[in-house]
Amino acid sequence: MTAPGTRAEAPAEDTDDLDVEEALALVREPHGEPRSDGTDDRPARTPAADPQAPGERPAERHRATPWTRAREAAARAARSRTRRAPVSVPLADALGLALAAPLDALTDLPSFDTSAMDGWAVAGPGPWQVREEGVLAGHAQPERLTDGEAVRIATGARIPADTTAVLRTEHGRIDAQGRLHTTREMLHGQDIRPRGQECRNGDQLLPVGTLVTPAVLGLAAAAGYDTVTVVPRPRAEVLVLGDELLTEGLPHDGLIRDALGPMLPPWLRALGADVIAVRRIGDDARALHKAVTRSDADLIVTTGGTASGPVDHVHPVLDRVGAELLVDGVKVRPGHPMLLARTKDHQHLVGLPGNPLAAVSGLLTLAEPLLRTLAAHPAPEPYTLPLREPVQGHPHDTRLVPVVLRGDHAVPLHYNGPAMLRGIAAADALAVVPPGGARQGEETELLDLPWATAGIGVCFT
Questions:
Q1: Is the C or the N end of the chain the one with fewer CB within 10 Å?
Q2: Compositional bias (Basic and acidic residues) spans (predicted)?
Q3: Predicted pLDDT at 82
Q4: Distance between CA 447 and CA 457 in Å, rounded?
Q5: E strands of 304-353, at which residues?
């Protein structure tokens, strides 16, 4: 559910929004875990001193999965399921999918000798007598040339037999007698694309697993394809929980606008999913059970209800359907109450926290690697940038902080509490801040937002 503070989400991540115990822990222990250089100047602590966020399930801190391991678990869960059957789709529907069969050339490219330039096809040494009729692209094989003869030719047109070279328009001149002269030295075969220059029939152009980009679509079309064999898009279904949610108008009388219903479907599409349904369930355990058991999606995404409050029904429903709980809480802020379960052999459920930025954290922690692996997309290469400002960390958990990229630095954004979307709406990426925080100028791993590099609705990650 999306009401700030009504679910198991921790308080806002800014220091002044932390609870008292966590704020004190930050002061006492600026480095919550050993740093990457192996140093560890932390005072000894006992488990009893660890703060517990409001709404955490009993022993949740001990069961929660480290952030990196949670992402690995999501990818591993997708790999362990039954192999998904490849499908043949028209080129127009293939963008962003991965090839499930090699793209082999169906013809020579080019399939005949063609002109690479506008100009004249010439035979033998000049000067040349020019024919009256020219040669255009898309026309039948032109008549053979004889030595001393030339013909006007367009880019892409078939080369007449016995052509020596193509003389570019800007490199030729016509004299008063109508003869063509070259103004530059000309080489044999100049500006002719010979048949099979790019590939021969049967050559492998691209291997299995290649991501279909606009350039791949162009190559496939040039090679004679109308359809390609690809790994199908994973199908996702979104279940929006919460009786307090409005779908229009201003918040009133304890009701709030639903931010996740409008946000999650396009975000999932940007991650490569085909969103087949968005259902509003409310705080109804029977309706949630019915929706989960009847769904045939590859991935079910729920919003809120992942804690142990009186209307938090996700865990009980998962128990009732016999789901295997793979990740139950993640050591990340915001978003630690997220979960991942296997509900059927061919189906998983990602339970997102109800707070909006916490839900984004859950998407990028659990849904992104699972969907990416189901779609056979390669994992993006990790990269880092130095922070322009220091970022306060959580004493024990990884923290995901919205940033904008300015030159060779990442600039942290404010309004990054778990219930806030103002920061992420302006962000280019999320900085992965280790426990204890990050100093100004410290190299920090970044997670790109899907539209920062690929465009809304298209996933190349």
A1: C
A2: 28-44, 57-74
A3: 61
A4: 18
A5: 324-328, 330-333, 339-344, 347-352
* Residues 306 and 8 sit within 8 Å (Cβ to Cβ): yes
Tokens in use for 370? 């699972």
User: Which residues touch 20 (CB under 8 Å, ≥6 apart)?
Assistant: none
Q: Cα angle at 41 between 441 and 32, to 5 degrees?
A: 65
Name the percent of the chain in helix, strand, coil, to the closest 5. Answer: 20, 25, 50
Tokens at residue 404, please? 């904008």
- Give strand pairing partners of 400: 432
Please answer whether residues 70 and 340 qualify as being in contact, where contact means their C-beta atoms are separated by less than 8 angstroms.
yes
Please name the residues in contact with 360: beta carbons below 8 A apart, sequence gap of 6 or more: 267, 335, 424, 430
146: how many CB neighbours lie within 10 A of its CB?
A: 11
What tens digit of pLDDT does each residue of 12-41 get?
333 333 333 333 233 223 333 333 333 333
Query: Cβ(458)–Cβ(213) under 8 Å?
Result: no
Give 236's DSSP letter: E
Q: How many residues does the chain have?
A: 461
Secondary structure of residue 293 in the 3-state scheme: helix
Closest to 55 (Cα-Cα) out of 102, 9, 107, 4: 9
30: phi then psi, degrees, rounded to nearest 5: -65, -20
- Contact present, 459 and 271 (Cβ < 8 Å): yes
pTM of the model: 0.75
Average pLDDT, the chain: 84
How many whole angstroms separate alpha carbon 98 and alpha carbon 461?
A: 11
- The answer to whether the beta carbons of residues 109 and 162 sit under 8 Å apart is no
Q: Which amino acid is at 211?
A: L
Which of 78, 457, 97 lies closest to 275 in space, CA to CA?
457
> What is the strand order of the sheet 324-328 is part of?
274-280, 235-240, 299-303, 347-352, 339-344, 324-328
- Which residue do the tokens 């994973």 mark? 234
Q: Are 226 and 90 in contact (CB under 8 A)?
A: yes
Q: pLDDT confidence of 140, banded at 50, 70, 90?
A: confident
What was the pLDDT predicted at 31? Answer: 30
Task: Of 43-47, 171-175, 184-188, 325-329, give the range with the top mean pLDDT.
Answer: 325-329
Lowest mean pLDDT among 29-38, 47-56, 81-90: 29-38
Distance of CA 217 to the CA centre of its chain: 18
Alpha-carbon distance 456 to 458, whole Å? 6
* Residue 25: other Cβ atoms inside 10 A: 20
* Distance of alpha carbon 343 from alpha carbon 324, whole angstroms: 7
| Ramachandran category for residue 148: left, alpha or beta (phi over 0 → left; psi -120 to 50 → alpha) | left
Selection from 197, 186, 169 nearest residue 113 by Cα: 197
